[in-house]
Amino acid sequence: MAGNFATPDIPLLVLRYSANGGSAMAVVDSRYLRAVLQLAIQEGDLYLKVGNLRMGLDGRVSNAPIPELSEAFAQRASNSHPYTVIAGSPTGSVENHLLNYTLPFLALTAAGGLFVGLICYRLLGRPSSPRTILRRALEAKQFEPFLQPIVDACDGRWVGAEVLMRWRLPGEGLIRPDLFIPMAERTGLILPMTRDLMQQVAAVLAPHAADLPPHCHLGFNISAAHCRDPQLLDDCRSFLAAFPPGSIELWLELTERELIEPTEESDQLFQQLSAIGVKVAIDDFGIGHASLNYLQRFKVDALKIDQSFVQHIGADTLSGHLLDTLVELATRLDIDLVAEGVETKAQLDYLQALGIPYLQGYLFGRPMPAHEFMPALHQHRNAVGDTIDHQQ
Predict the structure, then answer these.
(1) Could you tell me the CA-to-CA distances from 26 to 233, 246, 344, 351 in Å, in that order?
(2) Any idea which of 58-67, 172-181, 182-191 has the lowest mean pLDDT?
(3) Residue percentage of the chain with pLDDT more than 90
(4) pLDDT for residue 232
(5) Do residues 358 and 152 lie in contact, with contact meaning Cβ atoms separated by under 8 Å?
């Protein structure tokens, strides 16, 4: 269905079972269905059809006929449930693909041969693959760390920061992370990119370790690829060794763009990380399909509540109930909570009343280049000190 009275703008897949005079319903949010469809196909179109309604890769539900998919057409109906998956590409897509990607190289070869083609390749600076693009950007030191403050909910003092990766492309400015991070994870380059990010942060902040907040939290996002890389342990050791013992806390935030499959190797890696004092947090908790699985499998020290819950404070009763549940869960598990996306005073007051210890969002500071963090920290301390003096 295209939506219901509770979520009019979010399509749903509803399955109803009837038995013994009663019934049970299972509801699946379309965002999960859309993610499954997008993971299932790299090129072409894919539709999930139930009855006379269908949903495509854009996540919209419609009763309009499915466009003609004359190339690479495939259709598969479920043996257990009344739905069908339809895939294919429209007429001419193969020719367009060849024209967009193959013809320029053939023309260069025919016009000038391999030697001229190589010269044009270097002059134009057009790498042959996304991996090459990212590798060259990494070699050119184009990936920069940006830090967003994390504050103590009680008094607003900065207690650390989340480290975010930004790509500063010459002539283009900053490239949004969602445009290159997934590509870096698919190519495996996210590993050396994160390593370089850690080295840059250590080089900037380690000389000012004495001025950092006590036990300063510094968090880095890691993905499934990191959990399969034993070198992550050495990277964390090197990062911690750059600071005086006990001056910082290194946090690894598990993202869910790619499912982390628990193995003996990953279990051993997380045990070794815990042994050297590295903390583990689950990022964007509450929206990922694997969040609860991670809680059961890994030793988790903190949950970062997704900003979508925070944004609906005061406008959505359900979000308030979910926040209450998350606080109770964290209390029972004896783990910390960080609320992301705090932008208003009303959200701050609500989260303080719930007893959430740490907050993060534009209300306290936007992500800033690493070299601006220490001056901003000093300015913040002066402002907090003046506020306390004024209150006294």
Answers:
(1) 41, 49, 35, 31
(2) 58-67
(3) 38
(4) 93
(5) yes
Model confidence at 385: pLDDT above 70: no
Q: Which residues contact 369 (CB under 8 A, 6 or more apart)?
A: 144, 145, 146, 147
Q: Delimit the domains of the chain by residue range.
A: 12-89, 93-126, 131-391
- For the chain, what is the radius of gyration of the CA atoms? 25
Residues 32 and 289: beta-carbon distance below 8 Å: yes
DSSP string, 240-282: HHTS-TTSEEEEEEE--SS-----HHHHHHHHHHHHTT-EEEE
Decide: pTM greater than 0.70. no
Output the CA–CA distances (angstroms, integers) from residue 162 to 24, 44, 119, 340, 383, in the order listed: 42, 37, 43, 11, 22
* CATH number of this structure's domain 131-391, picked from the four choices 3.20.20.450, 3.40.50.2300, 3.40.50.720, 2.40.420.20: 3.20.20.450
The bridge status of strand 216-222 relative to strand 279-285 is unpaired
More reliable by pLDDT, 222 or 92:
222
Choose among 342, 321, 260, 244: nearest CA to 295: 260
At residue 36 the predicted structure's pLDDT band, cuts being 50, 70 and 90, is confident
Dihedrals φ, ψ of 167, to 5°? -110, 115
Distance CA(3)–CA(30), nearest Å, equals 9
Cross-strand pairs, 360: 150
Q: 3-state DSSP call for residue 376?
A: helix
On the question of pLDDT at 391 being above 80, the answer is no
239-257: average pLDDT: 91
Residue environment code for 260-280, b if the CB has 16+ CB neighbours within 10 A, otherwise e: bebeeebeebbeebeeeebbb
Residue 3's SS3 state is: coil
- Of 206, 203, 200, 241, the C-alpha closest to 220 is 200
Q: Residue 345 is inside which H or E element, if any?
A: helix 345-354
Q: How many Cα atoms occupy the beta-carbon half-sphere of 143 within 13 Å?
A: 27
pLDDT at residue number 388: 45
Q: How far is CA 304 from CA 144, 252, 270, in A?
A: 23, 12, 19
